[in-house]
Amino acid sequence: MNTKELIFELCCAMGVSGREEPALSVAEKFLSDYTDDIKISNGSLMAVCGNKNSDKTILLDAHIDRIGFMVTEINENGFVKVSPCGGIDARTLADTLLCLQHNPDITGVVCCMPPHLSDGKEDKAMPTDKIWVDFGLPYDEVSKLISFGDMLTFASKPANLLNGRIVAPCLDNRCGVASLVKCAELLKDNETDYKVIILLSSQEETFGTGAKTGAFTVEADESIVVDVSFASQPDVSGFYSSIELNKGPMICISSILNKEMSKSLESVAKNKNIPYQLEPIAGRTGTNADHITISGKGVKTAVVSIPQRYMHTQNEVISVADVDNTAKLIAEYIKCGGAFND
């Protein structure tokens, strides 16, 4: 399976947080090549792979929802007011093209003040409670097409950059989903000590519902959460200035994560010549691991992140090689029996 084509198809799917169905259909299509045990419930997908008779279960989680907007008002002139559904970088919103989730052919542009008419007060990031969208229609027409509660998201499309990089909306976290699909491909026809459950979870960007309920349902012995984290770019200082694209996935080291799992992932990467980087976080990770670690009686959990630039915008950037290496790292960890194989 071509990794870039997989990522592009996933990123073209709708699936705003709470309305994940279109993306789940795409993911199910790809995962069905590697398992016939797939269930979709409450906006999340679970696929069972590996040794289905094992009494040892590892949960692999990647959230499948994307950020977007919900329609909250339509004024008398046909302008549509929306509220963010998930974290939006408001600095990038002015003049952004958005589309309706249920009909992507209907597009509108986020209203913005021309600089010629501005007194300078509009030069700051747009307040999220003042986002209006222009669909080019009067009230009578727009109200026939758009209703309260409808979801919108970025209309930008995936594209190639140079040097193996790609740009797309919702690479957070469709690239993580792609890595788990690739992991399922690598595990196919391999004997493993684990029952492997892939959870493509809902609503991470809003409440973490899919990870909370999914982890409670599975009661796994271990879990690996795959998400994105920050890569270096101009003017970034501190630790993340050292994280590079195309240098491998980031293995998180955190006080809430299982130390043995993080060490084992690092050892596997070294032994299998898989490039990797370390990401130390003193407390919460900001990923679904924060929910899964405290699910039920507690789950030993690790986090592997794909380096990304321009997070929570319409044009996020990653290296395709980092997705492949994330899949390899997790697959090899599972093949080696994990951190508790004695």
TrEMBL record:
<keyword id="KW-0645">Protease</keyword>
<comment type="similarity">
    <text>Belongs to the peptidase M42 family.</text>
</comment>
<feature type="active site" description="Proton acceptor">
    <location>
        <position position="204"/>
    </location>
</feature>
<dbReference type="GO" id="GO:0004177">
    <property type="term" value="F:aminopeptidase activity"/>
</dbReference>
<dbReference type="InterPro" id="IPR051464">
    <property type="entry name" value="Peptidase_M42_aminopept"/>
</dbReference>
<feature type="binding site">
    <location>
        <position position="312"/>
    </location>
    <ligand>
        <name>Zn(2+) 2</name>
    </ligand>
</feature>
<dbReference type="InterPro" id="IPR023367">
    <property type="entry name" value="Peptidase_M42_dom2"/>
</dbReference>
<dbReference type="GO" id="GO:0006508">
    <property type="term" value="P:proteolysis"/>
</dbReference>
<protein>
    <submittedName>
        <fullName>Putative aminopeptidase YsdC</fullName>
        <ecNumber>3.4.11.-</ecNumber>
    </submittedName>
</protein>
<keyword id="KW-0031">Aminopeptidase</keyword>
<dbReference type="Pfam" id="PF05343">
    <property type="entry name" value="Peptidase_M42"/>
</dbReference>
<feature type="binding site">
    <location>
        <position position="205"/>
    </location>
    <ligand>
        <name>Zn(2+) 2</name>
    </ligand>
</feature>
<feature type="binding site">
    <location>
        <position position="63"/>
    </location>
    <ligand>
        <name>Zn(2+) 1</name>
    </ligand>
</feature>
<dbReference type="InterPro" id="IPR008007">
    <property type="entry name" value="Peptidase_M42"/>
</dbReference>
<feature type="binding site">
    <location>
        <position position="172"/>
    </location>
    <ligand>
        <name>Zn(2+) 1</name>
    </ligand>
</feature>
<keyword id="KW-0378">Hydrolase</keyword>
<keyword id="KW-0479">Metal-binding</keyword>
<feature type="binding site">
    <location>
        <position position="172"/>
    </location>
    <ligand>
        <name>Zn(2+) 2</name>
    </ligand>
</feature>
<dbReference type="GO" id="GO:0046872">
    <property type="term" value="F:metal ion binding"/>
</dbReference>
<feature type="binding site">
    <location>
        <position position="227"/>
    </location>
    <ligand>
        <name>Zn(2+) 1</name>
    </ligand>
</feature>
